[in-house]
Amino acid sequence: xxxxxxxxxxxxxxxxxxxxxxxxxxxxxxxxxxxxxxxxxxxxxxxxxxxxxxxxxxxxxxxxxxxxxxxxxxxxxxxxxxxxxxxxxxxxxxxxxxxxxxxxxxxxxxxxxxxxxxxxxxxxxxxxxxxxxxxxxxxxxxxxxxxxxxxxxxxxxxxxxxxxxxxxxxxxxxxxxxxxxxxxxxxxxxxxxxxxxxxxxxxxxxxxxxxxxxxxxxxxxxxxxxxxxxxxxxxxxxxxxxxxxxxxxxxxxxxxxxxxxxxxxxxxxxxxxxxxxxxxxxxxxxxxxxxxxxxxxxxxxxxxxxxxxxxxxxxxxxxxxxxxxxxxxxxxxxxxxxxxxxxxxxxxxxxxxxxxxxxx
Length: 360
Prior knowledge:
two-stranded antiparallel sheet, alpha+beta, single chain, 8-stranded antiparallel sheet, disordered C terminus, 24% strand
């Protein structure tokens, strides 16, 4: 708590059961108002100085060559040069992203949510040739599905179940590619695609997007999806997930995440001289064999657009939360996210030296 703006004594006092008017939520929420002039640092991150979140210093990273320049970027684990993944450079040392594949704390949480039915993404691979492993004209589509994943007796996702595409007016990503010896790679960058984000942002926009996937013997897929994503929604997603909770659980100051993303952003849709609003990014993908059918379940799905079938005004399935978040903190419905007066934040002078966490 000291790093987030409170001394240990103040933090303990806010949690002292002898003070029922000072609940843990009360104390956590006041963490937000530590910017200059008691500004809420979650929605005004520049009201506090950049703490200098330590970034990745190595030269190896997973991902794709997005700009076609092998002289810049990281080296892949297999030795390929030119990997563009500044998102990893910015946040790769953050606790929530550190660990073996799918075993970091953030990945475990997001994958568990998906596996427990919070959301589903289906992939359709369609080729025009006779050999799926060697085809010069392949289309790969990513779509949401309202059907929940099914687990087997070992708790893993079960293969060969059927999923219906759920048309969405925004979340749809279609790639043009080719397959060579079972490796499916983009033949051109897609200007813009939208997918369900596995993280706190919930939506993922990628510009100049590409794929590099390997077709497994059982029909599954593994590989990468990459592109330039807007970095501000990434930060805003963590704010919506309750800033004090993110800071406490992941050992980071959220404004430092804002500064790290802004500092490492490397792409502007407006051109080389425009503001760098996007950052190079890659998702690691693993998919199991399944049957994907049309929205009405009358036929096998093809890798084409289904946006026109989305109902008017329909959006992606919302994530339900048991709390009300305003400006990064939990407040009662209808209430504002505002700081308490200073007199309500400091321990009463009569509690000095009590041993119960009062100010010395």
